Amino acid sequence: MNNNQKITAIHHIIVDSVMAIVASLFLIEQINKNDSQVFIHEGTKIDINKDLIVLGLKINLKQYLIENFGESEGLNRTYGALKDMYTENADKPISLTPFGQKLLSTLFIGLVEDIKAESNATIH
User: Fold this and answer.
1) CA 84, CA 92: separation in Å to the nearest integer?
2) Nearest 10 degrees: Cα torsion 105, 8, 63, 85
3) How confident is the model at residue 123 (pLDDT cuts 50, 70, 90)?
4) CA 93 – CA 77 distance, rounded (Å)
5) In three state form, how does the secondary structure of the chain look?
6) pLDDT by residue (tens digit) across 106-122?
7) Phi and psi at residue 86, to the nearest 5°
8) Can you tell me the distance from the alpha carbon of 35 to that of 33, in angstroms, rounded to the nearest whole number?
9) How far apart are CA 103 and CA 2, in angstroms?
10) pTM of the predicted model, to two decimals?
C-alpha cells in the first residue's frame, strides 16, 4: 500500500467516525422524542439503530458524493456535510443542527414512503 492509499484509508476512517457521531446524535434525539429507538412518520414506525442510520448516510451521502466527485473530493465533501450536521459548543451538549435533523429526517421519511409503497404494491 503506497502513502496515498494509506492516507485515503485514514480519510475513510475519519469520515466513518464522524458519521457514527451524527448517527448516534440522531438516535438520541429519536429516543428522547419517541421514548424508543424508532422513527415515526405519519403513523408508521421504523425501528432504528446506529448501524442503520450509518448505512443510510453511507449510501445517500458518502457513496453519492464519491461517485459524483471522485474519492478524495467526495470524502472531503462528505466530511464537510457531516460537520455541518452537528454542533459542538462549550456551554451546551453536542447536538444535531437543524440541517442535520432535516437531512436525517428526510432520509427516513423516504424510507417510510418506500415501505408504504412496497406494502401497498403487495396488497391485492
Assistant:
1) 17
2) 20
3) low
4) 25
5) CCHHHHHHHHHHHHHHHHHHHHHHHHHHHHHHHHCCCEEEECCEEEECCHHHHHHHHHHHHHHHHHHHHCHHHHHHHHHHHHHCCEEEECCEEEEECHHHHHHHHHHHHHHHHHHHHHHHHHCC
6) 999 988 888 777 777 66
7) -140, 160
8) 6
9) 36
10) 0.89
Cα 48 from Cα 53, distance rounded (Å): 7
Report the length, in residues, of the chain. Answer: 124
Q: How many CB atoms lie within 10 A of CB 110?
A: 13
User: CA-based diameter of the chain, in Å?
Assistant: 57
Q: Look-up: residue for cell 421519511?
A: 109
